[in-house]
Amino acid sequence: MRSKVIEILAGLFMIIGFLALLFLAFKVSGLTRLEQGATYRVTADFEDIGSLKVRAPVQVSGVTVGRVTDIDLDPDTFRARVTMQIDSQYNDLPVDTSASIFTQGILGSNYVALTPGFESEHLRAGSHIETTHSALILENLIGQLLFSLKSDKNKPAGSAAHQQPAPNPA
Amino acid sequence: MNAIQRLGRIGIDFCGHLGVSGLFLCRAVFCRPKLRQAWPLFSYQLYKIGILSLIIILLSALFIGMVVALQGYNTLRKFGAEQELGQLVALSVVRELGPVVAALLFAGRAGSALTAELGLMRATQQIGGMEMMAVDPMWRIVAPRLWAGFIALPILAILFNVVAIMGGHFVGVDWLGVDDGAFWSNMQEAVGFREDIVNGIIKSVVFGFITTWVAVYQGFYSEPNAAGISKATTRTVVFSSLLVLALDFVLTSLMMGGW
Do B187 and A6 lie within an 8 Å CB cutoff? Predict the structure, then answer.
């Protein structure tokens, strides 16, 4: 009788362990959203991808429609080729959709934003996105800002002297 | 000269122990199974090793989750990032604290008990008696304990993870007032099933293997007297704790180092 109780307890122990694993999978890691349905592959070439990473989200109007699956360098043009898998639920993106790389927040990670165009033809598996906008690199922006401030100062006195005080560098 | 000789003897002894314990492990794990009789033996060991360790493991998990949440909250608040508390608690527990602390507690609670039990069996010549009756002690005594340890520790570590996260949720959301939805959604955003949870479980499988192996080997080959048993029990706890911490570093750098 005692051994039967112990066997039942041992079985329950294993079942509880399995249930806890399910809890970890669904509640903690949110596995349901990684549930891979059918996807199709789209590529795009960028001048500069900043710090875009594989597995970064691909979004249309802020809604995640896919993931970046591969990044490598085109050996001929030396542009970055980004491969994305888009959920085939979203198979009606126009063929002249453009792709840009944005940053989540000011210091967040990069993601790809697709802006739909107006053509009636749709992107298909293996399509290539022609219009792309590179990542905005903070250092480049600051460099351009400093450069334009400097060139403002070098202008003739008449135009520069009466402008508002120099912008607060903060 | 004497020092060199002593060093050499330590080296030879070490290799000898390693070889004996490896053979011991193979003999115990690959012994011929008798399925009908194996399950009661195994389930009794699983009860003793796993279920009786539940209370200490779950209580420590609760407190560890609570203290991680409390510490994390006070630091994250400086950066205005309290919302990320769920991510902090879940990642630190699932990746490191769960497998390691569960393994250390397991080595102290179950490993030392295994060693003492087997050592006493050796000292009172029960093992020799079994061999006399043509019952293979490997199969009858050692194998069920090894398998129970291999299976119990991963389950205990998973339960540890769950309870620690619930403890963190209790402190973070119910007490300190982090938003409930942000707690879970930031956690789900940051924790990956394959790269965090499965890797944590792989760690705990390795730790279960190591701690049980050390405990059973030390007990089975302990000197058959009271001092020998106490020495073997001490060695079990020391060796398995050190091995767990060292292997944790190796496994982390292999699986999560991002090489």
Answer: no
